[in-house]
Amino acid sequence: MELRKNCCPRRRWGKTGLSIPVIPFGTQGFGNNFGPVSDEEAGRLIRRAVDLGVNHFDSARCYGDSLRKLGVAIKGGVVKREELVIGGRVCCHSGAQWGGYGQGTPDYGAARVLADVEDQLGILGISRFDVLFVHDPPAIEPTLEAGGTLEGLEKARERGWVDWIGYGMNPHPFHLAAIASGRIDALLCFSDYNLLRQTAAADILPAAAAAGLGVLNGWSIMRGYLTGVPVERFVPREQWGQDHQRAEAIRRWCEDRGVSLLRLALHFCLRDERIHGNPLGSLNIEQLEKNVAAVLEPLPAEVFAEFEKAGL
Length: 312
What we know:
The chain has eleven helices and ten strands. The relative contact order is 0.14. The radius of gyration is 19 Å and the shape is globular. It has one domain (about 1-225, about 270-300): TIM Barrel (Alpha-Beta Barrel). The two termini are about 30 Å apart. Strands 4-5-6-7-8-9-10 form a seven-stranded parallel beta sheet. The chain has a three-stranded antiparallel beta sheet with strand order 1-2-3, with helices on one face. Strand 1 (about 1-5) and strand 2 (about 5-10) form a beta hairpin. It is an alpha/beta fold.
């Protein structure tokens, strides 16, 4: 892990060879989905992130208004393109123009991918993405077929619109099929490697490591409720399931011992070097700085031993 004073640690992102921060910036954080963020606030947040070494921005159309805001920051000179690692997503859902996330009849065609990528490049004001993911496809087989979604990304790469390609999704059989194709460079899994569950360790991580793929691990802090904030601030208690109950039990365990749950959650993931980045969607500069401070402060091994012994 590469260290720079007071900056976010970095790792080599698999076969891409890119150096990325261990907590890339999930742009949903300033997309208005978790609270309003103005263009000016987003610009200051993006600039501060880059200054702290968090210069990998993971973007998607469905992340609220974030794609446009990132474009405003780039076009307005708040940040320079060469300072950034920019990841994007291509959804297979149709509907009104590009479709809302999870809506409409899937369109797995390569032509749609190319039109989508070209449009996103225009919104951002850039000529190429560093990486593009097929985003949560409803089925994996049509994306891998001739003329399908992945071929669209391959053609985008031939046009110089993207350097590296892969998938961002959850189903493990989908990931394994994509890895087995030998056609991808990176992947993003989510909700399956954190303090609550580590199912990715059984199949996705070994397969990705064997293929030399770059791996992003989404939901390392479970969308906020593995940060030390009471879970009921995120999910009403009457809607709790087993995960929420366990997360609250872990929060109380940390509180009783004076341990930062945010540090525990992030360094738990950082201990597995097959994972190169854990995207976090900071809403403001205060959250961003807390996240960077947390990864700069490792926890003693005995804390993890005690946590594992607690069986939470």
